[in-house]
Amino acid sequence: MKMIIAIIRPSRLEAVKDSLSAIGVEGMTVSEVQGYGRQKGHTEIYRGAEYAISFVPKIKIETVVREAQMESAIEEIKKAAQTGKMGDGKIFVLPVEFAMRIRTEDSNEAAL
């Protein structure tokens, strides 16, 4: 099993969710986060005053998939989240050693 963590633009959340659902990814956790990468934030003008925004609002999606689903899930996230502009986000993949559904005590892939 693999955990996929994707940091994406907030406007691309529905597209990513729909793409993952279409390939059979059943669950995900979504968090509103802030951060910056190479862009180091940006400046905005509000009521004539310019100010710097160093932490950009993003969405963090976490999902655990079977090893066989990993490549297609990454591809779907990439296609749905990509705008071609700086700040599209990143995808990370981590190994998952154990998972358990608390209600039924199903473990590992059966828990997904």
TrEMBL record:
Classification of source organism: Bacteria, Pseudomonadati, Pseudomonadota, Alphaproteobacteria, Iodidimonadales
Protein name, UniProt field: Nitrogen regulatory protein P-II
InterPro entries named among the record's database cross-references: N-reg_PII (IPR002187), N-reg_PII-like_a/b (IPR011322), N-reg_PII/ATP_PRibTrfase_C (IPR015867), N-reg_PII_CS (IPR017918), N-reg_PII_urydylation_site (IPR002332)
Gene: glnK
Residue positions where O-UMP-tyrosine is found in the record: 51
Keyword field: Nucleotide-binding, Phosphoprotein, Transcription, Transcription regulation
GO biological process terms, semicolon-separated: regulation of nitrogen utilization
PROSITE patterns hit by this protein: PII_GLNB_CTER, PII_GLNB_DOM, PII_GLNB_UMP
Family: Belongs to the P(II) protein family.
GO molecular function: ATP binding; enzyme regulator activity
Any single GO CC term annotated in Swiss-Prot or TrEMBL for this entry: cytosol
Known partners and oligomeric status: Homotrimer.
